[in-house]
Amino acid sequence: MSEASGEGLMFHPMDQFIVKPLFGEGPVHWYTPTNASLWMVLGVVGIILMLVVGTRGRAIVPSRGQSVAELAYGFIHKMVEDVAGKDGLKFFPYIFTLFLFIVFSNFLGLLPKAFTPTSHIAVTAVLAVLVFVTVTVVGFVKNGASFLSLFWVSSAPLALRPVLALIEVISYFVRPVSHSIRLAGNMMAGHAVIKVFAAFAPLILMSGIGIVVTPLSILAITAMYGLEILVAFIQAYVFTILTCVYLRDALHPHH
Amino acid sequence: MANEHEAANMAHDAGAVAAEAAGHAAESAGMPQLDFSTFGNQIFWLLVTLVVIYWVLSRIALPRIAAVLADRQGTIAGDLAAAEDYKLKAKDAEAAYEKALADARAQAQKIVGEARAEIQKELDVATAKADAEISARAAESEARITEIRAGALEAVEAVARDTAAEIVSTLGGKADASALAEAVGARLKG
Q1: Cα separation of A62 and A65, whole Å?
Q2: Does residue A229 surpass a pLDDT of 60?
Q3: Cα separation of B56 and B62, whole Å?
Q4: Which phi and psi (to 5°) does residue A21 adopt?
Q5: Distance of CA B73 to the CA centre of its chain
C-alpha cells in the first residue's frame, strides 16, 4: 500500500473489496464482525427504516415514507403474481427478502467508502444456490417426477428431444452460476472501474498532463456513478425476476 | 532461559508478520472475491441478515402493508358504494320533486278551472238577474211614459177648455160648458 505513494498514481481498484475485521487486525473467523457484515447490517437497518418505520402510521392516505414502502411492496408483489402466477405468492416474502437485500446492498455500496456485499461471489452464490435449491425442491414436491418434464420438450420433434433434454439439464444446472456471477460481476466491475478512474484524478498534482486527465476522470467517475445507480437497481430487478421465472418453471413445468 | 524464550517469541512474531505480509501481497494481487478464507464469514453474516430480513418482513412489514392496502381498497370500495347510493337517492329525490311539481301544477290547473266555472256561474246568474231587472224597469218606464202621455193629453184638453172659456168670457161672451167642450174637442181632433 505504501510502496505506490512514492511513485505517483495508485492503482488498487480491488482493495475496496477486501473483507477485513471491523475491530483491530487479525484473522477473519466466521463470526468476526467485518466490513461485509457491517454493511449487511446497515442494509437490514435500511430495510427496517423503510418498511417498518416508514409504515408505522398505517395511513389510508400514505405519507411519503409509506408510499415508498407500498410502492416496493406493490412492485415485487405484482412481479411475483405476473411471472410466477397466483400460487407463487406464497413465496412473496422470500422473494421480497432477496430483492430488498440486493437492492439495499447495491445502493448502500454506492456510498463513498462503503463495502458492497453483493460484489462478492460468496454472497451472490449463496443467494443463487438458495433459489436453486428452493426451486428444485418446490418443483419436485409440487409435481413429483413430472417435474422432469421441464427437460423433455414435448413440442420438439421426437428425435431431437434427448439432445434438447441434455441441453435443458445443463442449462438448469448452470442457472445458479449465471444467476450469481451476473450480480457479483456487475457490482464488482462498476466499482472497480470507478476506482480506476479515481486513481487518475490526482494526476493534476503530479504532472502537466493532469490538466486534461483530471477533469476527464472526474467526468468519467460521475458518468459511471450514474450508470452504477442504474445498474444497482437493474441487477436487483434482474435477480428477482429470474427468481420468479425459475419459480414459475417449478410450479408449472409443462410448457 | 527467559531471554531464550523471548528470542524464540520474537522469531515467531517475525515469522508471523512475514507470513501475513506475503499473504497480503497474494491477496492484493488477486481478487478479494476469491479469498476463500473470508467465505465462511460472509456466508454466516449473509444468512443472519437474510433470516432477520425475512422475519421482519413476514412478521411485521408485509402483514402491515397488506392490511393497509386492503383497508384502503375497502375504504375506496365503500366510498364508491356510498356515492352510488347517494346518487340513487338524489335521483329518487329528483323524481319525487318532479312528481310533486307536476301534481301541484295539475292541482293548480284544477283549482283555476273550478274557480273559473264558479265565477262563470255567478256571472251568469248576475247577468240573468240584471237582464230581468232591466226588462222589468223598461216595462215599468214604458207604462209610466204611456200614463204620462195620456195624462198630458187629458191635461191639454182641460187646459184648452179652460183657456177657451177664459178667452170667451174675456171677450164678453157667455160660454156654455158643453158647447165649449164640443168645440175644443172638435178642434183638438181636427
Answers
A1: 8
A2: yes
A3: 8
A4: -65, 145
A5: 35
Residue type, A217: S
Residues on chain A touching B65 (C-beta within 8 angstroms): 51, 55, 69-70, 73
Least confident interval from A2-6, A22-26, A64-68, A246-250: A2-6
State the Rg of chain A over Cα: 22
pLDDT number for residue B72: 93
φ, ψ for residue A232, nearest 5 deg: -55, -45
At A8, is the pLDDT very low, low, confident or very high (cuts 50, 70, 90)? Answer: low
Contact A62 B62 (CB under 8 A): no
Task: Please enumerate in sequence order all residues whose Cβ is within 8 A of that of A68, keeping only pairs 6 or more positions apart, or say none.
Answer: A50, A54
Would you say A134 and A94 are in contact if contact means Cβ atoms under 8 Å apart?
yes
**pLDDT tens-digit series, residues B160-181:** 888 888 888 888 777 677 887 8
pLDDT of residue A69: 95
The alpha-helical segments, DSSP class H, found in chain A are 35-48, 64-84, 92-108, 121-143, 161-200, 210-251
Q: Could you tell me which of A239, A196, A247, A237 has the C-alpha nearest to residue A220? A: A196
Closest CA to A106 of A244, A21, A12, A230: A230
Q: Enumerate the residues of chain B whose CB falls inside 8 A of the CB of residue A188.
A: 31, 33
Are residues A34 and B46, on separate chains, in Cβ contact within 8 Å? no
DSSP state of B170: H
Name which residue leads in pLDDT, B117 or A6: B117
Cell of A61: 392516505
**Model pLDDT for residues B27-62, shown as the tens digit of each residue:** 445 788 888 888 999 999 999 999 999 999 999 999
B168 grid coordinates: 170667451
Contact A130, A174 (CB under 8 A): no
Instruction: State the Cα torsion B32-B33-B38-B42 to the nearest 10°.
Output: 130
Answer yes or no: do B28 and A12 touch at CB < 8 A. yes
CA A247 to CA A131: how far, in whole Å?
Answer: 9
Average pLDDT, chain B: 84
Of A44-53, A198-207, B175-184, which range is least confident? Answer: B175-184
Spans of all domains in chain A:
16-251
